[in-house]
């Protein structure tokens, strides 16, 4: 099964990222699909993912701060709002059900793989412009979309997790983010952006973030 | 009539800002109160205010990017969302009713007084930390609250504008922002923050932003 | 007399900046040339220029922070070092000779025209990338070069000031900065950068900073 | 042997960093002392350290951009200048002698431990203020000083490396940076800074960067 069509930049960047397959077909992901991922690994992932989501939200806030148009600001603001007012409270509830108290969540020690990834994304945004930031954010948003689309209907122990990312809402979000990226690129660099030297830097941002996603799964893997 | 009570930092910073009175009792404000402000001046203000709101929203996005706690992120995200999804579309509609088309709004040339103010706030946030940013943002949020509270019920030609800022929703926002600032200060600098050298820098941020508010009214004044 | 040749981007941006002539032929500049600029105006300029140089140095530091290559970092670091270890101490000595003590300099109140300009440049750099920052920095560096080249040999009361910017060292700096900008542009956007949408944004950065230079002269003018 | 006295903040932060000993007495360091570190490990370290130095220099540039006083700017500018114009060219020469060509250096793939550390430091600086940045930079500057002071005179295969950091110039730099940090803290937070909530955040910055230093040695270790 091929990845969903989330737009032009996604296709170009994914095809240039050596570890895209290693990320989206990681043993951790296969464990989610088959349900054979040990619970302890999933809980380790959930706790680190909470810390990840904080910095990921901050990165989306930075997208809004670095936006040029009202449409870009609105898209980033909506994502940030959904993350902080829906996703993160939901994440806290899911963790609580799994036996991780909010206090335990808050005191999670951020492992190096998590630090590497989140700070890479934020720093890309601060040091570069909105395009660097979007390229570094894309593997997480769209990779989870690709994983969710592939695993949809697998059922099993992790069906809730799979449904979150395979479901229509999240797939729509991926299409929207893909379109936001394509529009942002064309608006600044024109329709021929893929042939500019800048395109190599952006693809490298995407590839590095993809590599750091692999490290994130590795960290949580059994 | 005294200013509303928006918390401790507001009271300290306002009392240390030489131009607070000049800002909140500016002839432009008095013109809004009496209804004698010429329409042309109001329209000039509205167009510049649209450009202002874009950068003001970006500054609130930066608050979220620089936040430490989920509560801070949620407060900033909610403000950013309200600004980009409610305030700015409303502003566009009000301008359209006043004869300023969306295209005209978009092509408004940002005057120097506007540039000075918005870039001062954003740069305070980028170069400093979240406290510098909040101190620079406060005069706008809370000053409009103080003006709205004072002018509430004046009626007249600008009753809508007055009601926006004098109304309960905006007054509640001011109380919330005041509390956000007080909590952010105590959380980082402790209850004795007002006696630290840092307090002088923050008060100077507030005072400078207040001065730039005066410049903003001057710019639009007849 | 035409402006010196500081490279391709300079020529393109200057020709697109409506107020380039107003900036480089401002009455203040003419007053420097003829020597008829009142001393009080020159001192006002010197004091504000000290505050300007602090933020201008910070902006060059930001160029180094946002650089991709060692060569870019070295160029920015050399400029920053010259500014902080040579220019600013020199400026302090010149002001002292003119009767402005270091304490008076330090307590100069930054006027709005100064705030507008410096914060615009810094914020362009923080919110954009290194190209936005360079485009916003260029009018100051290269405009003073163009003014210095034109006024060189005028003699008179302000001969020292003229010689600083008209002299070989500063002219070489302008050629180097022009080359740095051209290389940075090509390296990221390719040789056809001038035809990309991005080129319009960068030209607008240059034009706005040029406009703010006019405001700076206006502020100090008699 | 105890660490050298690099000032008050250093002593406080070091004593609160659980992995300070693990960092400064890492097996890699012991291998440098005894000379038994395999050459391949040292070369791996050198190549990654080149990439590290690029981002470390960018972080010192950011210190200058975020400085409040001319003295702070001058200190940061001098460090940045030494790094980009002396240290990095020297590093390139040392690597060349060791058989790593400049091209090979430039194409070094940055490993995750390196990414984690450098982006953590830069992001601390962008999202926080100059104090966050200095606290995150301190373990590298001062830890190498502590290691150099302890290993000085060990001789052996890595005597050059040891002498670089144990020698008088580098030790003086550590004293200067320690003083810069102490002054920056007092200037903003007053003499009682160590009792403020902020002190815990800064100590955590130092502790995290220390932890990432351990990861850096681990990465290069045989």
UniProtKB/TrEMBL annotation, chains A, B, C, D:
One Pfam family named in its UniProt record: TENA_THI-4
Signal peptide: none
Annotated ranges, domain Thiaminase-2/PQQC: 13-220
Protein name in the entry: TenA family protein
């Amino acid at each position: 099964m091929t990845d969903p069509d989330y737009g032009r930049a996604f296709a170009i960047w994914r095809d240039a990222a050596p570890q895209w397959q290693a990320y989206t077909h990681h043993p951790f992901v296969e464990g989610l699909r088959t349900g054979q991922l040990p619970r302890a690994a999933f809980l380790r992932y959930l706790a680190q993912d909470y810390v990840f989501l904080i910095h990921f939200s901050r990165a989306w806030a930075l997208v809004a701060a670095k936006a040029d148009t009202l449409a870009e600001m609105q898209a980033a603001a909506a994502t940030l709002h959904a993350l902080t007012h829906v996703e993160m409270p939901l994440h806290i509830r899911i963790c609580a059900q799994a036996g991780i108290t909010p206090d335990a969540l808050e005191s999670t020690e951020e492992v190096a793989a998590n630090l590497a990834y989140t700070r890479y994304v934020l720093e890309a945004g601060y040091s570069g412009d909105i395009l660097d930031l979007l390229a570094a954010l894309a593997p997480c948003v769209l990779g989870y979309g690709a994983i969710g689309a592939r695993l949809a209907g697998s059922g099993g122990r992790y069906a809730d997790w799979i449904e979150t990312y395979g479901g229509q809402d999240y797939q729509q979000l991926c299409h929207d983010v893909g379109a936001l990226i394509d529009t942002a690129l064309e608006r600044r660099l024109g329709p021929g952006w893929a042939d500019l030297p800048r395109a190599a830097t952006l693809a490298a941002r995407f590839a590095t973030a993809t590599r750091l996603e692999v490290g994130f799964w590795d960290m949580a893997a059994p």
